[in-house]
User: Fold these one by one.
Assistant:
Number 1:
Amino acid sequence: MSIEAVEQRLVWTLPTDATCAKRARDLVDDTLTVLGVDREVIRDAKLMVSELATNSYRHAHEHPPHELWFDPGPREVVCAVFDSLPMAFDGDTTFSDDHGRGLNIVEELSGGRCGRHLTVSRLEPYAEGKAVWFAVQRG
């Protein structure tokens, strides 16, 4: 993967089985390494994406597609996990709710640069769902 290829929005399909989090961690490690992101930041990003991918697998495994998105900007990289379950945890969970403990980790490690929004798949037209995202500083 070249730096030029990474300067665009990137998207990968994630598996809808127990390998989802590992695949997401590997993609985060590879992509952020190419972008020259600090190893400590990459370590935190791998933990954050692991939380998001695990939630996607646990709560939305029957709602494909599952995707990993990267939007590299000049100062930060936004990483998101998409699935077609519109809202997790009955639609009422925020980053501070009891059921969202893993999301609290994401909020802390990202310094609050995280969230979720309703959106559509980047790979399958008309597949509606949500993207849960975080941002990390880029070098």
Note: The chain has one domain: 3-137.
Number 2:
Amino acid sequence: MIRKALIFSAIVAASAAGAQESASGDRAQPSGDAAQMVTATMLEEASIVSLEGQYDEGVWQAGDPLTSMIADLTEIGQVENVVLNTAGQMQGLTTDVGGFLGIGTKQVLIPLEDIRLTRPDAESDEITIITRLNEQQLTDLSEFQIGE
């Protein structure tokens, strides 16, 4: 069953990639500066931290740098998975929450709108993921399981 799901995912991904070709047969290239790109490896090694307490919702929504908001951060954990839909669009990140010493933990999906990525500087490969959800809100999320 898993093999069929993987094959189906590969077919859907290939179809989506083929749909991006222009009439001339050229493939669409990502736009933007490479320094603004993030790789799966960078995310794999990223820590997830939470804004606890009050924060400026306007700064979060505007996409402005979070430097004025990062005084009260609580470490949540590490990225477990990057979740994409079948169109290849990122939906969010999963992490383990709750429990103690790995016992009683559950994996939850942090939606894309609730995360921001930060770097110490443009040349750094170090990524920190900031979520506006606090520890209790993360623990209250439903457990995320692939294939349900």
Note: Confidence is low (pLDDT under 50) at residues 1-24.
Number 3:
Amino acid sequence: MKQAFYFLLLSAFFACCTPMDRMDPIDYTVLRYEAADFSSLSKFVPMLEDYGGMMFFLDKKLTFSVAVLEYTTVDPFGNPIQASGLVYHPLNKKSKGVIDMLPIARLDITAPSEDFFAAEGLSALVGYTLIIPDLLGFGKSDWIKPPFLLAENTGRVAFDMRRAAAQYLWDRFRYQLPAETTITGYSLGGSAALATQKYYETYHSNTVKVKEVYAGGGAYDLTAAFNAFAKTRFSDFAAIPHTIFAFDHYYDLDLDLTQIFKADPPLDRDSWYNGVYSTDKIEKIGTDIAGYMHEDFFKPFELQNGEFKKLHPFLVLNSVSEGWRPKAPIYLYHATTDTYVPRECAEAAITKLRKAGANISLISYPGDHFTVGYYFMYRLLIQLL
């Protein structure tokens, strides 16, 4: 009789626990903590200033906490590495839910945790718990070369940040992180959002339940991106060199760069791929892709040289439009005239993921990458309300 009682008690305990309760614990360190209120909104400048009077719906009585966490994850080689990220959490009101927010491409070494009141943190202002990993190559891990657009590592780093946030929120606030989450991000964060969804649904569907995904301006299909750039021969952001250098480094491709880039002037690994997507590099290289890419880049795939063919399988491998069937609904936003990330990336993702059975929608807005980026963040706040 006593054994049956303990069995029923144990069964009831596990039945009342969410899947997140049974996640493996993870060590973390709080590097910075601050309590904030409506008077702190000026620290989100210039984002809030750009919105002007459109933020009238914000709760002026809301108080929230901001914390920078350090935690252990792995790099693309599988080595342990210390990473960092931000956690926002309401203090005087019940959290409306959890958002995994993936960061935009960080220029000139900044990271969400270094900004502290980061643009990605705006969703906290409507009462959500917000988890923002810096991703590798920024923040605490700024000494390594960024795994630019490496989908699997992006998902792993985001998941470990979520584990650290779950432990921190319980330790400090006795807040049990729910299993259900919304994933979102813009630009680099857009492709990272789908990479995180893919990682969660592929490896951790019993511990994380993705409710929905809002992604904007992302390079979801790298082959489509390269083809579009080859057609237009124009890019406002030097995404192609960053992608090639990252894949060459982390997949040990040993590419002959003289067959990838023009030999004069050369783009070498040391000066370009040192962990910074700096503005001065982008301005220096210019917007004319024909000015720095080898002539074979502009040929049909079957006519390209062996170095491009060596690179191609890794473009496919890291395209989040390939190789899975998303379970949660996806809402993609993209500018009609995007010269940073071609709209073809979103169109290819829609076609391929719908064919795989995904519930996915594409919302196009007139404007460029930055204009629609502001609109995306604002629409997200309205949607979350």
Note: Confidence is low (pLDDT under 50) at residues 1-21.
